Amino acid sequence: MVDWEFKDKYGLDDFIRIIDVLRAPGGCPWDIKQTHESLKHNVVEEAWEVVDAIDEGSADHLREELGDLLMQVIFHAAIEREKGGFTLDDVADEAVKKLVHRHPHVFASVKADTPEEVLANWDAIKRADRGQKSAASVMDGIPKGLPGLMRSEKIQSKAAKYGFDWPDVSGAMDKLREEVGELQQGIDAGDIENIKEEIGDTLFSVVNTARFFKLDSEECMHAACAKFIRRFRYLEEGAAGLGLKLEDMTLGQMERIYQQARHELEGKEPFPVDIP
């Protein structure tokens, strides 16, 4: 049994210490086994759970999820310290220095009176810090671990800053239709590698279309997923109300209830369901 001081209220030092306790001999077998590589997907997942809490508008949920995300930062720093590398203090030191460096309008004499000027200065400093002298090198700096739709939007936005962009959404829509046509050709040919490529091109074009309306493709996709789940729940409950199980129904039968869900959940006229 590990010696641990139970308190009514814990602080950041306690958070740092408990990770050390969990990873020490006699601690938790799972925590001891973890590495940077094994935890990398957890970082992404916890970050998106923070986003969910923000969208939910719950301060309690947000506090909980920020704690989970902070645990990832502390955990990775602990792993590195154990290897004789950097510490959490080193992480904080570099972050503070970066903030001071990239806010010359606050800590130096650079003038930036609007959010747009601040972002322009930030981007210029960031490019200089990373030695990014070309547009392509700027795109290379966009994290490969970002969700695909988000990364696509960032790449397209960078290209647009250099003038490589359609003048309006019609060009983006034409490109989307072109990609869908090429995807169909791949499907007709049964060429799986081509299908894979064209699906990627089609998604990239969808993101580009959304960008013209300043829409976040990730948010659009999350909304679509939530809508599908609502309709699927209606389908499942509707089937149960008819004494049916989904696994015993035909696709046509399920589709009838699903169409009813589309109408009723969106406030349209009721859609008659006739399950043969």
Fold topology:
Blueprint: H1 12-23, H2 29-33, H3 36-56, H4 59-82, H5 88-101, H6 104-107, H7 115-130, H8 135-140, H9 148-161, H10 169-189, H11 192-211, H12 217-241, H13 251-265
Helix pairs in contact: 1-4, 3-4, 9-11, 10-11, 12-13
Q: Count of DSSP E strands?
A: 0
Question: From the alpha-carbon coordinates, what is the Rg to the nearest angstrom?
Answer: 25 Å
What's the total helix number? 13
Identify the CATH class of the domain at 12-99. Mainly Alpha
Form type: globular
| Contiguous runs where pLDDT drops below 50 for at least 5 residues | none
Major β-sheet annotation: none
Helix content: over 70%
- Classify the beta-strand content into a percent band: under 5%
SS content category: mainly alpha
What integer is the average pLDDT? Answer: 91
Per CATH, the superfamily of the domain at 12-99 is MazG-like
CATH topology of the domain at 12-99: Helix Hairpins
Order of helices and strands: HHHHHHHHHHHHH
CATH architect. name of the domain at 12-99: Orthogonal Bundle
Q: How far is it from the N-terminal to the C-terminal residue, by CA?
A: 63 Å
Care to describe what's here?
With 276 residues, the chain is mainly α. Among the domains are: 12-99, Helix Hairpins, CATH 1.10.287.1080; 219-265. It has helices at 12-23, 29-33, 36-56, 59-82, 88-101, 104-107, 115-130, 135-140, 148-161, 169-189, 192-211, 217-241, 251-265. The mean pLDDT is 91.
